[in-house]
Design a protein that fits this description.
Layout lengths: L1 H13 L11 H15 L11 H8 L3 H13 L3 E4 L3 E4 L9 H20 L4 H16 L3 E6 L2 H15 L5 E6 L1 H10 L7 E5 L3 H4 L10 E4 L1 E3 L1 H8 L7 E5 L2 H12 L9 E4 L3 H10 L2 E5 L16 E4 L1 E3 L1 H12 L2
Parallel strand pairs: 3-4, 3-5, 5-6, 8-9, 8-10, 10-11
Antiparallel strand pairs: 1-2, 7-12
Helix pairs in contact: 2-4, 2-6, 3-4
Amino acid sequence: MDDQREDTTSIILSKAFLERNGAQPLHVQIRNAVELAIFSGEIPDGAPLPSVRQLSSELNVAPNTVVRAYQDLLRDEWVEASPKRGYFVRIDTDDHLSDSARSYLMSLLDPVIDASRELGVSESTLLQLIAEQIRTHRDPVRKVAVLGNPENLKSGRVEVTREALADLNAEVVGVSYKDLEEYRSSGTLDDIDIFFLPVAERQQARPLLTDELSKIVPVTTRLRTDVQERLASLPPDVRMGAIAGTRENVSRLVGILKQYHPLRVSPITAHVLDEDAVQHVFDNAEFVAISSRALPYIPSTADIPRPWIEAAMVPDEKSIRRLRLRLHSP
């Protein structure tokens, strides 16, 4: 009998659509698919789950991915493990709810169901939303510190990260390196669960995070989307100006600009410590890109005589996926 029910469960789960490059890790998607099948009654109480080897083969994922999904389900008490037999669905209905309490909770769900129908939300999607909310209230809030210099933190780095984690139970804060020193001296570094640290700035932060290295998630960056679109709209033969904070960062900025614009005409460059070179850029370039670090050193952006844009850098998609994966880990 168990073999027959396991085959049925396997068929149900094999239909799960996995986003291979999605924001959610594969083991989380598998866990969600099992939860949804239990919620909807497709997989009944006591039903065996497919073996790790069988489900990993059917979904074309690594066995460890299925193991992590099953461990999450075990931790959340959706399933129980039986030695040498595998995993079985476990639905604990012995909640001792009085009839009045049950009726009250059901009445609260009625408007939610009505609203979902008006919005055209399917039952499976509604059940998934309920499961996500349950996890949000059950799991503790995890604090993510987006590290950077004050200028970079103002350029959208924090907002992009916060938006990318909006569906998770996470608090995202911007922390400058000066703030980090204060956190360290006050002994409150333990309050932060993850440090989202740009690779280009790791040398600046590592001495302050000597005892917190395991909490670091490295960040690689991209130009903010609106900046990409502005550069793409410029003529290919525009004479570009590039101003950065240091001589070393000028070449890095030019390399970044080349990813989004052909730069057929060699750009005019300067770093902020060379005032004459900065003025030369403003006098001769048709369009100027200024790094976030350099912007505070420009006396008055209102007086810049050329069209310009802040070359604001934010976390790229790979870094966001890396961060989400860490947040999904216990």
